[in-house]
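Components:
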Amino acid sequence: MNKKRILILVRSPPYAGATSYETLEAVLVAGVFEQAVTVVFMDDGVFQLVRNQDTGELGVRNVGKGLRALDTYDVKELYVDGASLQQRGLTAADLEVPAKPVDAVHIGNLIRLNDVVLTS
Amino acid sequence: MKFALAVFGAPHSSQASASALRFAEAAVAMGHELVRVFFYHDAVYLANELTVAPQDEIDVATSWAEFASRTHVELAVCIAASLKRGIIDENESRRYSKAASSLNPAFRVVGLGQLIEASMAADRVVTFAA
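Structure:
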């Protein structure tokens, strides 16, 4: 079986149901299978990246903590839609992990370049 | 061509599982191969054996079961996503001391790795999102 380039598009916000953490788990598992994994955060998905998340009072898993684990799983290609950040009053300095801000054209190219695109 | 299907949207509140079934039927009819159909997120609710469809509507879960028995395509649900939503097979039911099980036997409970494995084996992955 060939190694695949897998792109995961994260478009939904954290803490709005189980989906966001489950998407993160899919990213981690793709890393475990040693695939070439790229993650793009866009739309409300950029809120997943906000630094210093504290879920102590919520009683759910901390997405920020999960994001920090990505590096260990060899998932290093992280991108964020710059316009989505800007629209929400966020900058690269607000992020928990170093996701690279890119524009819509770049995201389009990433979708084209990858073998598999999963969107949640 | 080899397809893998990833179904993410819940039955009843999204069209995902019904659209995926149409796609699967069409793909097989055209001679393509389906590596696996993987249900994740709220799509695992489709594997709830205890649902009863209205008589004047298509029972999507039963249609999937018939499709699987006809084509031998594997219908897989993610174990972690299923357990937290009450979709549980007999083994897991015993393990967690539950009073009942709820998995439709047409579906198989597997690890999330099977989604990635299917992606690796397929030429194309088609996602049916929420």
